[in-house]
Automatic annotation (TrEMBL):
Enzyme Commission designation: 3.1.1.29
Location relative to the cell: Cytoplasm
Annotated site residue numbers, Stabilizes the basic form of H active site to accept a proton: D93
Alphabetized GO MF terms: peptidyl-tRNA hydrolase activity; tRNA binding
Function: Catalyzes the release of premature peptidyl moieties from peptidyl-tRNA molecules trapped in stalled 50S ribosomal subunits, and thus maintains levels of free tRNAs and 50S ribosomes.
Protein name as annotated: Peptidyl-tRNA hydrolase
The reaction(s) this protein catalyses: an N-acyl-L-alpha-aminoacyl-tRNA + H2O = an N-acyl-L-amino acid + a tRNA + H(+)
BP GO annotations: protein quality control for misfolded or incompletely synthesized proteins; rescue of stalled ribosome
UniProt family annotation: Belongs to the PTH family.
SUPFAM superfamilies named among the record's database cross-references: Peptidyl-tRNA hydrolase-like
Oligomeric and partner information: Monomer.
Keyword ATP-binding appears in the UniProt entry: no
Length: 190
């Protein structure tokens, strides 16, 4: 079984914000391929959907914890389903990448991302596949606190086109990882 988890914050307040791009990408992929609707599974503190893709059993998860507690939900799922770390894909926003960029990485530091810090803290490893979706605005000044506010803002009308394109690209990356492997996806998209 392969677990794909989309990071973000739960609730209407955080829908369609940059910090929720991982969650949004997984939601869009679930809709595209017609997996079962997401259902709240309280024992995992997550919305869960199941299906198969390329003859592989897939479990999709959207933690209903806040971003900085993502590891708590993920740890429960990994433990219950005995998910191998090599079968884990985490989709998340990344302030180190320009808005609209998508990159794949493995065994990489968290760069201060609170959701990833939580996951690495629970799993005791960073050796899992990550799909990183860029959220850094062009005018961002390194060290600025404005980024914290920006990632929690709703997309503007002009940004919706960028979001649609990056979600489409993220879905292509997810599918290539599942059809081929993360290394081939890295070679193509990085």
């Amino acid at each position: 079984m392969i677990l794909i988890i989309g990071l973000g914050n739960p609730g209407k307040k955080f829908e369609n914000t940059w910090h929720n791009l991982g969650r949004l990408a997984v939601l869009n992929w679930q809709g595209k391929i017609g997996f079962a609707d997401f259902r709240l599974e309280r024992k995992f503190t997550s919305l869960i959907s199941r299906g198969s893709f390329e003859k592989k059993e897939i479990l999709l998860a959207l933690p209903e914890t806040f971003m900085n507690k993502s590891g708590q939900a993920l740890g429960k799922i990994v433990s219950f389903y005995k998910i191998k770390i090599t079968n884990l894909v985490v989709v998340h926003d990344d302030a180190d990448l320009q808005k609209g960029e998508v990159r794949i990485s493995k065994n990489r530091g968290t760069a201060g991302h609170k959701g990833l810090d939580s996951i690495v803290g629970v799993l005791k490893t960073k050796n899992f596949t990550r799909i990183r979706i860029g959220v850094r605005p062009k005018n961002y000044v390194a060290g600025s606190k404005l980024l914290d506010k920006f990632v929690l803002k709703k997309f503007s009308r002009t940004e919706e086109k960028i979001v649609a394109e990056v979600i489409k690209k993220t879905i292509e990356v997810i599918e290539m990882i599942l059809e081929e492997c993360s290394e081939k996806a890295m070679a193509k998209y990085n």
